[in-house]
What we know:
- By secondary structure, the protein is α/β, with parallel strands linked by helices.
- Helices cover 36% and strands 19% of the residues.
- It has helices spanning 8-18, 20-26, 34-40, 60-66, 79-85, 105-109, 125-137, 155-161, 176-185, 223-226, 246-263, and strands spanning 28-32, 47-53, 74-77, 94-99, 116-119, 142-146, 170-173, 189-193, 199-200, 210-214, 231-234.
- Strands 7-6-5-10-8-11-9 form a 7-stranded parallel beta sheet, with helices on both faces.
- α7 (125-137) packs parallel to α8 (155-161) and α7 runs parallel beside α11.
- The longest helix has 18 residues, at 246-263.
- The chain starts with 7 loop residues before the first helix and ends in a 6-residue tail after the last helix.
Amino acid sequence: MISSSANAQIKHLEKLMKSSRERAKEGLYVCEGIKMFLEVLEQPDALVKAYVSESFLRQEVFQKKIQGRLTVPWETVSDSVFDRAADTVTPQGILGLVRQPEYDLKRILAAGDRNLLMLEDLRDPGNLGTIVRTAEAAGIGGIILSKGSADIFSPKVIRATMGAIYRIPFVYAEDFQEVLSILAGKGITVYAAHLAGSVWYDEADYTKRCAILIGNEANGLSEASASLAGCRIRIPMEGRTESLNAAVAAAVLMYEAFRQRRKGPVGES
Length: 269
């Protein structure tokens, strides 16, 4: 049993949770909690190693739902060390060391006719995780992020996705504007959420394959990206509200596109 926080494996876990550079270098990330661990068990060859607290080791959920499915090495960790190593305030007693999935733009663009989501410089991990979770629920086929966006493999993002991280493909674009141009060249309309949009979000037609473009929480979209969109759309707001939270705005737009693709655009008989 690992009983010291100075243990090299614990130090390694802590480094992976804190450093995006280290995660990228090793191609690994850490998942935490029962739900996330059970879901990673369903991903072939994703799990590298498991860490179990001494108290969780005795729990029925571990003995009946996890232990028999573990095909990778695992370590028992004292409760005090586990609590210090975990990223959550109230750890559930299990951590997984997981391989980062690899996707590419060609695969995402070739994935049927499902809509895409583009995120430019989205910085808040909670927002990003919530958007990934909502994107799966709204039938989004893939997510394209600018290099300035938050690290999708950070512990807070991973938790906020509630497992969607394992199922929806995503890629960080080396040149975000170039990708926007590629989409246009493929006939995929990009709808940019913009405060100066000339079209209400529910008046646009999302029934053909399209991409929804969301910008930075504080500054919105860059003019360079907005200028490459096929249409700028806006969400009506009353009162003195100037803008919506990025995750909320993304959810509104994704679900309108989802609704239309199930039933047809507004006004269609």
